[in-house]
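Example with several molecule types.
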Amino acid sequence: MYRIMEKTEKSKKRESYHHGDLRAQLIEATRVLVEDKGPDHFSVSEACREAGVSTAAPYRHFKHKDEMLLAVTKEGMDRKYQRMVAAVEQHPEGSLERIVALGQVYVGFARDEPGVFRLIFGNTRDHKMHEGLMEDGPRHYGFVEGEVAAFLGRGGVDEDAKERAFMLWTFVHGLSFLLIDEKVSSTDHSFDLDRLLLQVARRVMIDSA
Amino acid sequence: MYRIMEKTEKSKKRESYHHGDLRAQLIEATRVLVEDKGPDHFSVSEACREAGVSTAAPYRHFKHKDEMLLAVTKEGMDRKYQRMVAAVEQHPEGSLERIVALGQVYVGFARDEPGVFRLIFGNTRDHKMHEGLMEDGPRHYGFVEGEVAAFLGRGGVDEDAKERAFMLWTFVHGLSFLLIDEKVSSTDHSFDLDRLLLQVARRVMIDSA
DNA sequence: TCGGCTATGTTAGAAACTCTAACTTTGACA
DNA sequence: TGTCAAAGTTAGAGTTTCTAACATAGCCGA
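Resulting structure tokens for the full complex:
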């Protein structure tokens, strides 16, 4: 699991009245708690205890609890996107490996940070409240569609490319949740993630429309 | 959305001290609230208001809040399973239509009862607390594997059948969540569920291993 | 250097929620 | 008919989110 271990100089017991870095530290505390207890068992109070401030302090930085979660969500989406871009760059343009790599990052992120993954893709009605969050999803997905179209050798993203991209998304999305919800044991000897991703990528990307 | 409208004779304002049907009525109230507000915004107090009893009353029937949700979960799984069996029976044995029908029920259930669907497949660590709930999942999934094997014309469920069944599950699972989480708009003119399910069923079930 | 403004802390407390304890009612059954 | 247990009730402890009113201090202009 993803952990940031570097602690700011004021991480424990500050001596000044003002904290100096509270907003960032609250977001980080929130992220850790979300991973530890799950998004629905996260409490503001606990984050405050963690950061060593009163329970009223966060409300100088966030309108309400959900805004803290949204901050973590946003930050998580950015991180996930960066991983996707980095993964793709390691393979030649238009190759199937790029597609597979995208799937690996998707599932990998879910397993590394299930809490944040849930925030990103779970019940997301309140994403609308966050500035820019609603735009990130389609933009990131557009990137995937572009890769799919590139593999197919099309000029642009046509209907067929969209459909195939959607099948792939659906697949890795479902797989991610089944894994983090422990509906399927990844330790099962017959479970081979890379093989499975390759299988699916082939079945979806190759042959007739 | 699924609604039970029949009201028991004591549904509103009972005159007797004892309720008579509280357990069942609380489960039903819980189910409705879970659909209306989502599983994580459900509160025992509200269910009590709904049923017209004090907030302490449920604790005669359930150990804690989660046990009420588990009851709804269990009941939902049973209902989902029945729908699956019923759907399959409408098509000839070993036909691809049976496979597609299973997918339709899966996604259909998610759309009809997103709240309960989330309970069944969401963060399910506490399913262990419920007697029998942990066994239901594998049993229902075994049924699907059987159908897949039947289509393939195998004697039993071999490794290949298992892998294909898993791909299908993963797909409909992901699709369900993307739909109920509004990551993809089902009203999009290019979105055709039946077509998509058939596409995927073909790609997964037909041709080389 | 000083005075004040504003950002960012604090404490106190309201309202909601989960769950327990102790009490009450009532149906069932010996 | 009398008693017990099941299943309600009220009271309240402890936690939570969030607001209001107050406190501190960093910064900035005179």
